[in-house]
Amino acid sequence: MSSIEENLKANGLTLPEAAAPVANYVPWVITGNLVMISGQISFSQSGKITGKLGADLTVDEGKAAAILCGLNLLAQLKDACGGDLSKARRCLRLGGFVNCTPDFTDQPKVINGASDLMVLAMGDAGRHSRAAVGAPSLPLNAAVEIDGIFEIAL
Q1: Which residues pair with 112 in a beta bridge?
Q2: What CATH number did the domain enclosing 124 receive?
Protein backbone atom coordinates (compact mmCIF):
# COMPACT_ATOMS: atom_id res chain seq x y z
CA MET A 1 0.00 0.00 0.00
CA SER A 2 1.37 3.42 -0.96
CA SER A 3 1.77 6.26 1.52
CA ILE A 4 -1.07 8.03 -0.32
CA GLU A 5 -3.40 5.12 0.39
CA GLU A 6 -2.11 4.88 3.97
CA ASN A 7 -2.82 8.58 4.50
CA LEU A 8 -6.33 8.14 3.11
CA LYS A 9 -6.97 5.04 5.23
CA ALA A 10 -5.79 6.86 8.38
CA ASN A 11 -8.54 9.40 7.65
CA GLY A 12 -11.27 6.82 6.98
CA LEU A 13 -11.08 7.11 3.18
CA THR A 14 -10.47 4.47 0.52
CA LEU A 15 -9.90 4.70 -3.20
CA PRO A 16 -12.69 3.52 -5.47
CA GLU A 17 -12.04 1.52 -8.62
CA ALA A 18 -11.08 3.78 -11.54
CA ALA A 19 -14.23 4.53 -13.53
CA ALA A 20 -14.45 3.67 -17.22
CA PRO A 21 -15.05 6.57 -19.61
CA VAL A 22 -18.69 7.24 -20.57
CA ALA A 23 -17.99 8.83 -23.98
CA ASN A 24 -15.29 9.10 -26.65
CA TYR A 25 -12.24 9.91 -24.51
CA VAL A 26 -9.64 8.14 -22.39
CA PRO A 27 -9.54 8.53 -18.61
CA TRP A 28 -5.88 9.60 -18.59
CA VAL A 29 -2.95 10.32 -20.89
CA ILE A 30 0.73 10.11 -20.00
CA THR A 31 3.24 12.38 -21.74
CA GLY A 32 6.76 12.42 -20.41
CA ASN A 33 6.44 12.27 -16.64
CA LEU A 34 3.00 13.93 -16.57
CA VAL A 35 -0.41 12.32 -16.27
CA MET A 36 -3.38 14.34 -17.50
CA ILE A 37 -6.57 12.96 -15.96
CA SER A 38 -9.94 13.60 -17.55
CA GLY A 39 -12.67 15.26 -15.52
CA GLN A 40 -14.02 13.12 -12.69
CA ILE A 41 -17.52 13.74 -11.41
CA SER A 42 -18.98 13.51 -7.91
CA PHE A 43 -19.70 9.78 -8.09
CA SER A 44 -19.21 6.89 -5.66
CA GLN A 45 -20.48 3.34 -5.33
CA SER A 46 -23.35 4.70 -3.25
CA GLY A 47 -24.38 7.08 -6.04
CA LYS A 48 -23.79 10.53 -7.43
CA ILE A 49 -23.99 13.87 -5.67
CA THR A 50 -26.12 15.81 -8.09
CA GLY A 51 -27.74 19.22 -8.23
CA LYS A 52 -26.91 22.89 -8.29
CA LEU A 53 -24.96 24.78 -5.67
CA GLY A 54 -26.91 27.83 -4.65
CA ALA A 55 -30.24 26.06 -5.20
CA ASP A 56 -30.16 22.36 -4.28
CA LEU A 57 -26.91 21.95 -2.34
CA THR A 58 -24.99 23.70 0.42
CA VAL A 59 -21.29 24.58 0.25
CA ASP A 60 -20.55 21.66 2.60
CA GLU A 61 -22.41 19.26 0.30
CA GLY A 62 -20.43 20.70 -2.61
CA LYS A 63 -17.17 20.13 -0.72
CA ALA A 64 -18.22 16.50 -0.15
CA ALA A 65 -18.81 16.20 -3.90
CA ALA A 66 -15.35 17.65 -4.57
CA ILE A 67 -13.79 15.10 -2.20
CA LEU A 68 -15.42 12.32 -4.25
CA CYS A 69 -13.97 13.86 -7.41
CA GLY A 70 -10.55 13.95 -5.75
CA LEU A 71 -10.77 10.29 -4.76
CA ASN A 72 -11.76 9.43 -8.34
CA LEU A 73 -8.77 11.41 -9.63
CA LEU A 74 -6.44 9.46 -7.35
CA ALA A 75 -8.03 6.19 -8.50
CA GLN A 76 -7.30 7.15 -12.11
CA LEU A 77 -3.77 8.17 -11.13
CA LYS A 78 -3.25 4.75 -9.53
CA ASP A 79 -4.46 3.10 -12.74
CA ALA A 80 -2.10 5.28 -14.80
CA CYS A 81 0.76 4.21 -12.51
CA GLY A 82 0.05 0.54 -13.14
CA GLY A 83 -1.50 0.14 -9.69
CA ASP A 84 1.51 1.61 -7.86
CA LEU A 85 0.71 5.01 -6.36
CA SER A 86 4.23 5.23 -4.93
CA LYS A 87 5.15 6.46 -8.44
CA ALA A 88 3.07 9.62 -7.86
CA ARG A 89 5.37 12.58 -7.21
CA ARG A 90 3.18 15.67 -7.19
CA CYS A 91 -0.25 17.09 -7.90
CA LEU A 92 0.46 19.98 -10.27
CA ARG A 93 -2.98 21.36 -11.14
CA LEU A 94 -6.68 20.84 -10.54
CA GLY A 95 -9.40 22.30 -12.71
CA GLY A 96 -12.68 22.49 -10.80
CA PHE A 97 -16.14 23.01 -12.26
CA VAL A 98 -19.12 23.64 -9.99
CA ASN A 99 -22.71 23.18 -11.19
CA CYS A 100 -24.24 26.34 -9.76
CA THR A 101 -26.73 29.15 -10.03
CA PRO A 102 -25.56 32.40 -11.68
CA ASP A 103 -25.36 34.21 -8.33
CA PHE A 104 -23.31 31.49 -6.55
CA THR A 105 -19.77 32.76 -5.84
CA ASP A 106 -18.29 30.19 -3.46
CA GLN A 107 -16.74 27.93 -6.11
CA PRO A 108 -13.29 28.14 -4.43
CA LYS A 109 -14.77 26.92 -1.12
CA VAL A 110 -16.35 23.95 -2.90
CA ILE A 111 -13.19 22.95 -4.79
CA ASN A 112 -11.24 23.22 -1.53
CA GLY A 113 -12.70 19.77 -0.77
CA ALA A 114 -10.48 18.25 -3.48
CA SER A 115 -7.53 20.55 -2.77
CA ASP A 116 -7.58 19.64 0.92
CA LEU A 117 -7.80 15.95 -0.03
CA MET A 118 -4.68 16.18 -2.21
CA VAL A 119 -2.70 17.74 0.64
CA LEU A 120 -4.05 15.16 3.10
CA ALA A 121 -3.09 12.32 0.74
CA MET A 122 0.21 13.64 -0.63
CA GLY A 123 1.47 16.13 1.96
CA ASP A 124 3.31 19.12 0.46
CA ALA A 125 3.42 17.28 -2.89
CA GLY A 126 -0.35 17.70 -2.96
CA ARG A 127 -0.17 21.51 -3.12
CA HIS A 128 -1.11 22.57 -6.62
CA SER A 129 -2.22 25.35 -8.92
CA ARG A 130 -5.95 25.45 -9.56
CA ALA A 131 -9.01 26.87 -11.23
CA ALA A 132 -12.46 26.93 -9.63
CA VAL A 133 -15.25 28.05 -11.94
CA GLY A 134 -19.01 27.95 -12.07
CA ALA A 135 -20.92 26.12 -14.79
CA PRO A 136 -24.62 26.31 -15.71
CA SER A 137 -24.74 22.49 -15.86
CA LEU A 138 -22.45 19.46 -15.74
CA PRO A 139 -22.70 15.96 -17.26
CA LEU A 140 -25.28 13.72 -15.55
CA ASN A 141 -26.26 16.71 -13.37
CA ALA A 142 -23.11 16.15 -11.29
CA ALA A 143 -22.59 18.78 -8.62
CA VAL A 144 -18.84 18.98 -9.30
CA GLU A 145 -16.34 17.85 -11.95
CA ILE A 146 -12.57 18.09 -11.52
CA ASP A 147 -9.67 17.25 -13.83
CA GLY A 148 -6.02 17.08 -12.84
CA ILE A 149 -2.39 17.02 -13.87
CA PHE A 150 0.07 14.95 -11.85
CA GLU A 151 3.80 14.28 -12.02
CA ILE A 152 4.92 10.65 -11.78
CA ALA A 153 8.22 8.76 -11.65
CA LEU A 154 8.99 6.92 -14.83
Answers
A1: none
A2: 3.30.1330.40
